[in-house]
Amino acid sequence: MPKNPRFWIISGALLVGGAFLYVQLHARKNGAAPGETTAQGSPKAPAAPGEHPEMREGRGLDSFVKPFIGTGGEGHTYPGATVPFGMVQLSPETDVRYFKESFRWAAGYRYSDKTILGFSHTHFSGTGHSDLGDVLLMPTVGPLQLEPGTPDDPDSGYRSRFSHEDESASPGYYAVLLKDPQVKVELTATNRVGMHRYTFPQSEQSHIVLDLVSSIYNYDGKVLLSQLRVESPTVVTGFRQTRGWAKNRGLYFAIEFSKPFKGYGIESGADEEYKGFGKSGKLLQNYPEASGKKLKAYFDFDTAAGETIQLKVAISSVGIDGALANLRAEIPDWNFDAVRRAARESWSRELAKVDVDGEEKKKNIFYTSLYHTMLAPVTYMDVDGRYRGLDQSIHKVDGFTNYHIFSLWDTFRALHPLFTILQPERDGDMIRSMLAHREQSVHHILPIWSFGSNETWCMIGYHAVPVIADAYLKGIRSFDPQAAFEAMKSSASYAAYGGLGDYMKYGYVPIDREKEGASKTLEYAYDDWTIAAMAKGLGRTEDGQEFGKRAAYFRHVFDTSTGFMRAKKSDGRFREPFDPVYAQYGSDYTEGNALQYSFFVPHDVQGLIELMGGRERFLERLDQLFTMKVSDEKFKQVEDISGLIGQYAHGNEPSQHIAYLYSYAGQPWRTQERIHQIMTTLFDDTPEGISGNEDCGQMSAWYIFSALGFYPVCPGTLEYVIGTPTFPRATLNLAGGKTFTVLADNVSDTNIYVQSVTLNDQKYDKSYLRHEDIMKGGTLHFVMGPHPNREWAIAPASAPYSMSR
């Protein structure tokens, strides 16, 4: 961010006159449809509805997407309007909370709430931490109120009651009736612009409130600076800099109204009026500006019954000129329905990459999951390719789309592997974005959990590394592999991060020197294995040997006397006392306990089986995990551990591969039982239908893979462990016109067991599927039945990859 953000406001003022005329006079100069961009971020026209087979059938796949799934319970999703991987996520806020209270409102919206605070333009999908919620707007009618009020007393502010009966959402669209002002709100979006349509009653006291104070993860002092300038009776520009989860995040915006406002006011938060204007609401006479930490504004209108007022809100990390350019490039006119239609068509094209047959409820869950996998990471650049980097300087991309919101501790497991199948070009661009992040980092390492030109250092591991290795080994080469490999090594060698210096010294992370040492040792060892795998692919033998050795460091924290992975002190002794059930943040494990984390050796499950005493003992331990009952007094469950079956916690990522491990021990039918149990008890098509944080698409990617019948237990192996398919037919529509179809004869809620498998009409007796078999196209054919086939894929040679096998 520039040292003086006022500079951008003044610069924007000089540019806005011509820009505003441009917006009014030059509609669709380049023929682009709103909301659609190429991989480089430039506009492109949408395909006609007739080009989509599912739309020719009379019902679009978007009709199976239910955006309210996950907005209740622990899902933390939002129901608002966005396009696939869109920079704008325009959605309602039902409440904002301070610090720890903000957990349940991480996406700004909870289905159980009864009031709406307003509609803002940036949101996380399914995270366990909150931030964003930028540029909040709210239509009101009657006496002006600039305070938000409370859920218990909405009449004390501009907040409004609402009912779910008057609310709807679909991909690219959200609508609700605000009961108190009797205003219908409709929202849609392009990549960088949110569009509002408000239908007012008759009134001489209609207002639109702009609140630059309110934020998700709200507290006094979060806003470091905000600025606002009224450029004309229809254009307002501004800026906001915040210190939240991201410690220094700036966002610029430009708002255009379809109708000139008759008056306005800006409140700075001070007792006196600011620069001579405040709550007067007088007719506009000039174009004033204001700056401060608590800016709010209002815009007054006379409205006839049923009159609509539309708004276009563009955002930018670069400057007001960038926001204005985004606005005029993506929505040059006032055709709300056309923008909504273009958003729907963009979703239809993406959803059509997977075509399934089956029961409607299961299709609702499946396509909503597919939808959720495309809500992060999201575009982070203006239409001209500029964006604000981690170094707070302005950069310009060269031939790719820059992305942000990298929740890598979650998404390396299944979301990015799903991208290698359905979104290989985007996955390559995401990796290029990570490499750019590394170049801009003073630490010269890849992102950990980053967004908004900031690194949060949240969670553990260096999990950009497996994302890069998995993509490279699967043939995605849109990035420089040698530069990427050097970046991977830098991240794995940054001694100041998370006990890495001690990890390299001791071969584990000592718990007396670093918290969560057991988890960190296990996750670093897996990341190191992916570096070794990529080193082999690049022919870098010495590096492969070094990181292959480090990949075996998981053995250093295995306690043979208890059979668990345990935290070890720097003197070589395990920490005492030890309770494998105890789970609490800041202890030996990260969002889990010893029961769960002892199974995190995805790259060497056979080695783990041997450590635990062989197949039978390993299988007993798996069963124990799923059946163990623990009293509430003993199990100190933290808020973010959910989706429990015994001590298996599907709501937390460290557990999500475990049900597939039965196949490594020669009992694939047990994997089939457990996967069916998880899918039918922990997923639903209701607002509470996601059993834990959606986590930027990871939970949904798990469901998609598992419903197809296979899952990437160990990204980097190029293998997917076979489970149990959900649909009688599922077809992946791949790049180059190829298709891969999964058929499941007789599949049902009772016929969950694999009886036999063929791949391209050839008998198949392996409990895993190779990536190349998917990408070259073909058919995987299951025959399902009500009883286990205890002979299929049980031989050691049929088991998936393990490092020590």
UniProtKB/TrEMBL annotation:
The record's keywords, sorted A to Z, are: Glycosidase, Hydrolase, Membrane, Transmembrane, Transmembrane helix
The name this protein goes by in its record: GH92 family glycosyl hydrolase
Q: One Pfam family of this protein, by short name?
A: Glyco_hydro_92
Query: Which residues are listed as membrane-spanning?
Result: 7-25
Documented EC number(s)? 3.2.1.-
Q: Which Gene3D superfamilies match?
A: 2.70.98.10, alpha-1,2-mannosidase (1.20.1050.60), alpha-1,2-mannosidases domains (1.20.1610.10), GH92 mannosidase domain (3.30.2080.10)
Give residue ranges for domain Glycosyl hydrolase family: 323-786
Check the record and name the PANTHER family matching this protein: PEPTIDE N-GLYCANASE PNGASE -RELATED, SECRETED PROTEIN
Q: Which GO terms describe its molecular function?
A: hydrolase activity, acting on glycosyl bonds
Taxonomic lineage of the native organism = Bacteria, Pseudomonadati, Myxococcota, Myxococcia, Myxococcales
